[in-house]
Design a protein that fits this description.
The protein is globular, with a radius of gyration of 18 Å. The protein has a 6-stranded mixed beta sheet with strand order 6-7-8-3-9-10, sandwiched between helices. A 4-stranded antiparallel beta sheet has the order 2-1-4-5, with helices on one face. The chain has a domain at 1-77 and 193-241: 3-Layer(aba) Sandwich (Rossmann fold), CATH 3.40.50.300. Helices cover 37% and strands 24% of the residues. It has helices at 40-48, 70-76, 93-102, 112-125, 141-153, 171-186, 198-204, 222-227, 229-236; strands spanning 2-11, 14-24, 29-33, 55-60, 63-64, 78-80, 159-163, 190-194, 207-212, 215-220. It has 241 residues and is α/β, with parallel strands linked by helices. The structure holds adenosine-5'-triphosphate. Residues 11, 14, 16, 34, 36-42 line the site of adenosine-5'-triphosphate. Adenosine-5'-triphosphate binds at residues 11, 14, 16, 34, 36-42. InterPro entries: AAA+_ATPase, ABC_AA/LPS_Transport, ABC_transporter-like_ATP-bd, BCA_ABC_TP_C, P-loop_NTPase. GO terms for molecular function: ATP binding; ATP hydrolysis activity; L-isoleucine transmembrane transporter activity; L-phenylalanine transmembrane transporter activity; L-valine transmembrane transporter activity. One of its GO terms (biological process) is L-valine import across plasma membrane. Keywords: ATP-binding, Nucleotide-binding, Transport.
Length: 241
């Protein structure tokens, strides 16, 4: 579904993502972890098209996408959520999601009425069916995340990029989001999930990729990767002798 070769992003003197290779199989969930500033969001920005790589190649379903603008990638079937959620202000929850439906895979839904119908279905799916007419700005943290999910899902993506959707949630809310992500995968969607909540990464991921200072330092099944001493050290610091 997705293949990255030598993917690199430099900002002035800083190498934020440094020659990273990875791939994602259809219907797989890949967990992307690493300490703050490791380059995770920069990597997702290069996949969604917000940033152009400084070097390297990125292919989606066998087609090079690294020079395409974001909207073309959305049309091809790539959608994302943002770490800092920015609902369209002044629009209802329903209309926020309808906008997603109008700009998604294949160019999106042209009819506003149909886009709203789809939006309603996705809001039911993400558990916001009772807040359709609420102003998006009035939603609390967990509901904003549900809205962010619904907006991305309304684009009917084949590849969904989730950037720290669990930050600030309670343990019960984290479990709900984990179930939601599993439900999305069961619909045939391929998912890359950036997350600091390790319990969620363990329960969700088929494979985990670890970034540290922009470099991929480990990759494999969650149990093995999360016990890798280099990964433990990157997260927790060196053990004192
Ligand atoms: N637009 C930018 N201009 C300059 N430097 C940037 C830019 N975006 C990111 N960086 C830098 O690149 C590095 C990687 O940042 P990035 O946000 O990708 O890390 P992250 O792993 O997502 O971190 P976090 O877990 O805190 O979200 C950081 O040092 C950051 O300051």
């Amino acid at each position: 579904m997705l293949q990255a070769k030598g993917l690199t992003k430099r900002f002035a003197g800083l190498v934020s993502v440094d020659h990273v290779d990875f791939s994602l199989a259809r219907n797989e969930i890949l967990g992307l972890i690493g300490p703050n500033g490791a380059g995770k969001t920069t990597l997702v920005n290069m996949i969604s098209g917000t940033l152009r790589p400084s070097e390297g190649e990125l292919a989606f379903k066998g087609e090079r996408i690294d020079t395409l603008p974001s909207y073309r990638r959305a049309h091809l079937g790539i959608a994302r959520t943002f770490q800092v959620m920015k609902p369209f202000p002044g629009l209802s929850t329903l209309d926020n999601v309808a906008v997603g439906a109008m700009f998604g895979t294949g160019g999106g839904e042209k009819s506003r009425a149909k886009a709203r119908e789809k939006a309603r279905e996705w809001l039911e799916f993400t558990g916001l069916g009772n807040r359709l007419e609420a102003s998006a700005d009035s939603l609390g943290g967990p509901d904003r995340k549900r809205l962010e999910f619904a907006k991305a899902l309304a684009m009917e993506p084949e590849l969904l990029l989730l950037d720290e959707v669990m930050a600030g949630l309670t343990a019960v809310e984290v479990d709900q989001v984990v179930e939601l992500i599993k439900k999305i995968r069961d619909q045939g969607v391929t998912i890359l999930v950036i997350e600091h909540v390790i319990k969620a990464i363990r329960s969700l991921s088929d494979r985990v990729l670890v970034l540290h200072h922009g470099e991929a330092i480990a990759e494999g099944d969650p149990a093995t990767v999360l016990e890798n001493p280099q990964v433990v050290e990157a997260y927790l610091g060196k053990r004192r002798a």
